[in-house]
Design brief:
There is one protein chain. The chain is of the alpha/beta class. It folds into three domains: 78 residues, Arc Repressor Mutant, subunit A (Orthogonal Bundle); 135 residues, Aspartate Aminotransferase, domain 1; 239 residues, 3-Layer(aba) Sandwich (Aspartate Aminotransferase, domain 2), CATH 3.40.640. The strands form four sheets. The chain has an eight-stranded mixed β-sheet, with helices on both faces. Strands 12-13-16-15 form a four-stranded antiparallel β-sheet, covered by helices on one side. It has a two-stranded antiparallel ribbon with strand order 1-2. Strand 6 and strand 7 form a beta hairpin. The structure holds pyridoxal-5'-phosphate. Pyridoxal-5'-phosphate (PLP) binds next to helix 8. The site of pyridoxal-5'-phosphate has 14 residues, from helix 8.
Amino acid sequence: MLKSLNKESDEPLYLQIRNQIRDLILSGDLPLGARLPPERKLAASLGVNRTTVSNAYHELTAEGLVESQVGRGTFVCALPGTTRDQEDFPPRPLPWNEHFVALSEQVRDPLIRELVALCSQEDMISLAAGVPAPELYPIERFAQSTDRVLRQHGHALLQHCPTEGHPAFRETLTELAAGRGITTSPDNILVLAGSQQGLDLIARSLIEPGDPVVVEVPSYLGALSAFRAAGARLLGVPMDEEGLRTDVLERMMARYRPQLIYTLPTFQNPSGGVMSRERRQALLYLAQRYQVPILEDDPYGELYYGAPPPPPLKSLDRQGYVLYLSTFSKILFPGIRLGWLVAPRPVVDRLASVKQYADLHSNTLAQWALTDFIQQGWLGEHIAVLRQEYPRRRQAMLDALHCHIPQGLRWNEPTGGFYLWCHLKNGLQSKDLLAEAALQRVAFVVGEAFHADGGGQNALRLNFTYQNEQGIKEGIRRLGEALTALLKRRRERRAPRREAARPIV
Ligand SMILES: Cc1ncc(COP(=O)(O)O)c(C=O)c1O
């Protein structure tokens, strides 16, 4: 800790020791609460007798820099800058990154923030964001609902409400659930500040560090981040055209006994896939057999553009295995920050007590206004509008892809939801395409973000709901340019360099 002492100096040894320790304290290198080495140990390491060190510690105590606690040792008790002149120790910024917010690598997930920054650049066409068409937001009707509830219930409505949610809103959600085939009661519903909060609360409450959690490959990146932040060990299960591969899952269940299965059975984010009815039954059967809860995340189930999808897993669940999570972010607007969970009572109670630490309750005005909006029948009407508009946009994207991307990329044709899931061919990587795309002013999400197993380097997700048809066409045209540039760059890199002609001797 200390530099060696100068035994030739006129300055007594105990003062040399005092000065060195004082500098360490005042510079902050010995922080508040740090324990000084025991006198005997420091004396031995410096080659002085114990009294010398003892005298130095007495000096520091007299200056108020340290205090000794009987039986425990001597501790730093002053903050840097408090005992010397401001001029000697000018104020300096707090090193937040070093001491306070040094997050583990797992928790550091800059991807979403980088994407938001990319998408907010001028002229950028975002095919990345998973948000609805803003020009379709039913603003007039929502304003009417807000106005009405404010006038009718002003004071009550601007108060706190129960953490579990405003009672009338929970009633309304019970009816909404019934419309999706889910029989439940208001007591089994927890209102959330968006479904992302549900993912976080479940991760915090149900998962201990090291617990195995099953996720689909690929899966929603916000969920992967929440589970990782809770220390989960993610077990990726592949999917086929019927959804999560229950044959692979069964082997994993037997081997790892996971703590949770997270699935997006309907218009999966990012793949757009729909789990078949048989697979849903098989998944439920496995959960029951191995006694593992399922978290079903269903933001997109109402957004089908052909035949309705099979009913939610939760509607098939008679034994309370499924936690059903949904949100208004995709069928209405994300800024309202309202999501909801249907779960057995003990889960609702546990999650509500954790939610209470985070935000006491979700926004009261939004809950009342949305209750009115739904009771007027306006949510149903709005969803009908979306079901008309989004397939047009999806078709516009498919047509534009056929027109502008003749080679190098394949894509699916989802029957609902928000996304096209694409794969680059011939070893091309989506992060290289994104770099070219940024130059062409178009953005998407790279596939890696959705892969718990580190794969997906050749995959990318394109959103078709946020841009209008014109934006989609132009965005895909730019993507085509980016792909052409990437292919050209690769050809150039691969082309053998011409050797200069050598004379034959
Ligand atoms: C599958 C899935 N779950 C949860 C969310 C989070 O939505 P929110 O917190 O806005 O309700 C999203 C948003 O993209 C999503 O796609």
